[in-house]
Design a protein that fits this description.
With 185 residues, the chain is mainly alpha-helical. 74% of the residues lie in helices and 3% in strands. The chain has one domain: Up-down Bundle (Four Helix Bundle (Hemerythrin (Met), subunit A)). The chain contains 6 helices and 2 strands, in the order ααααβααβ.
């Protein structure tokens, strides 16, 4: 069983690192003006984020360091990357202080939400919306919203920021276990 736990722990760690790599490459894409590619990478990071926890739970290989590392990766992929994506895609030419403030607010709320999650002991629900969900919403808006007014994007950053730090209870989805053959490294 120890070998199986180790196998699952390594597979989960690999997915966590893939999440981070997608987030970092999304940041690089943003700096090059490749906004659709950045949006797709944020969505791919969400897939990796979903898989890492499922793999770890399946193998009973969840660890404190895995939880902390996951949050650090999430703040890049679903906090910094989406906020920068909106700021650069919609406001880079105008250098809007309001847009910059909204992007910073979103990142700060996301980091706070992750820290609060790491010390919580709620197993049936999230308190506030997960940062991954917020990042997905921003990525989809950026992908589809190049024609949307910038005010809509600022509103999305602010509303999602508030929802992340809110005390609303969001039921945790039931996770389908990942079949063993999908985990092999």
């Amino acid at each position: 069983m120890l070998l199986q736990n180790s196998h699952h722990a390594k597979a989960a760690l690999l997915m966590t690192m893939c999440n981070l790599m997608c987030g970092f490459i999304a940041l690089v894409c943003i700096t090059q003006g490749w906004f659709k590619e950045a949006s797709l990478l944020i969505l791919l990071a969400a897939v990796c984020d979903s898989l890492d926890g499922r793999i770890a739970r399946r193998g009973n290989a969840t660890t404190d360091i895995g939880k902390e590392l996951d949050s650090l990766c999430d703040v890049v992929s679903f906090g910094v990357a989406p906020a920068l994506l909106i700021y650069i895609q919609f406001f880079s030419e105008s250098m809007s202080l309001i847009a910059l403030s909204a992007a910073l607010f979103y990142v700060v709320c996301g980091a706070y939400r992750l820290a609060r999650f790491n010390i919580s002991h709620n197993h049936d629900f999230f308190v506030g919306i997960p940062i991954t969900l917020a990042g997905i919403v921003i990525a989809v808006l950026a992908w589809a919203g190049s024609g949307l007014p910038g005010e809509v994007m600022i509103g999305a950053l602010v509303i999602l920021g508030f929802l992340m730090v809110s005390t609303i209870k969001v039921p945790k989805p039931t996770h389908r276990p990942v079949p063993e053959e999908e985990i092999s490294l």
